[in-house]
Amino acid sequence: MKKWFSALAALLLCSAAWSQEDKAKTGWNFSVLPDLGYSTDLGLNLGAFGDLFYYGDGSIYPNYLHHIGFTGTYLTKGSWYVHAFMDSHALIPGIGLSLSATYRDVLANNFYGFNGIASPYDASLDRNKEIRTAYYTNRRRFARVAALAEGKIAGHLSWMAGGVFRRIWIDDFSLEDYRNGYSLYLDYINNGLIRTDEAHGGTNLEIKAGFRYDSRDIRRAPGKGIYGELYLLSNFDLNGKAYHYGQLVADFRHFIPIIPRRIVFAYHLALQHTLWGEVPFYNANELSTPLYIKAESTGLGSRYNIRGYLYNRITAAGYAWANFELRCTPFIFTLFKQYIELVANPFIDLGGITKSYRLDEQRALGADYYQDLSLPVMASAGIGGKLQVNHNFILSVDFAKAFHSQLSDFMVGMGTAYVF
After folding, report:
1. What is the phi/psi pair of residue 9, to 5°?
2. What does the pLDDT average to over 308-324?
3. What is the 3-state secondary structure of 171-198?
């Protein structure tokens, strides 16, 4: 960690930073690029994505009137997805509209049990080809369609309402070079922690409504402002079972300029807590979001929420988490008429469980499924680097390590967005 911060300090002290003026974009801007990313858990992703932005006469740049994006990606550790997203602020006068459609197939989905580090983790069983085990693995597929509308109330305050349709399929993994029929997922089913009527997925409809406050100067890469969301969601089981539930979701992001355009302190506080009903197993790791800009939005531990944890390490009925980072931009320049920023961001991420999930049943099964270990606050730290083009395209890579060995050793994540 000392080496990382020393390198960051050297960058910020560099006097040769090359700066150019950011010129407004107008009309339609279209780009198709390789979708190159990496995750310690999911492997290298190889695909392509396209972004189509409409800036009108340029008066609102770097914000935009319309955005259409699509991605198709294959990941080398056994998954693939296609994702399409549309975000418009002018299609319907006075109404913002967002639509998305996603299909994702994860052949080697991480499943580490319920309630975080209350579930024992033995790293030697986690996709170990020498002994042919992938104990913490199942297969998870889903199809999702989402829509959200929003309208201004006053100033920066807006109402928002939307819905999400999901169809989820879950099975035991089927990977070459590994011994099938030996997984935590199957052990949970055999011992009743996962019930037979939810074990292989289900279909549900989620309705959400609430409020948004947004005073950011730039939507994708803010230099100042506040972004907050507060809403309730109700999720209805369409399979005729009893898995209906409601959750409170709160999200607060604050971007504080220390040196404008150069150093920004950013922090993010989030809560998702089940208020009523029972969350089915197949939905327990779903993190709600109004806008599905990214294909995935799942349990604590990933490149998109808590960096440094194993992917989906924390599954519960209620979560709270926080991200704190210093976004430092020593280099700003233009290249081929594109406005480019190079950013370094050291960070600390925190996570915790606000409501456990079938903890008494888990504890009753004994030491193979439960360990008397609890951390009210789980932490990780690391550093990231960003390549930002025209404020809207962001290539991101993060290196992080959790402070507790039951959460992870060392994780690397690469994608095309900020964590928040």
Report:
1. -60, -40
2. 92
3. EECCCCCCCCCCCHHHHHHHCCCCCCCC
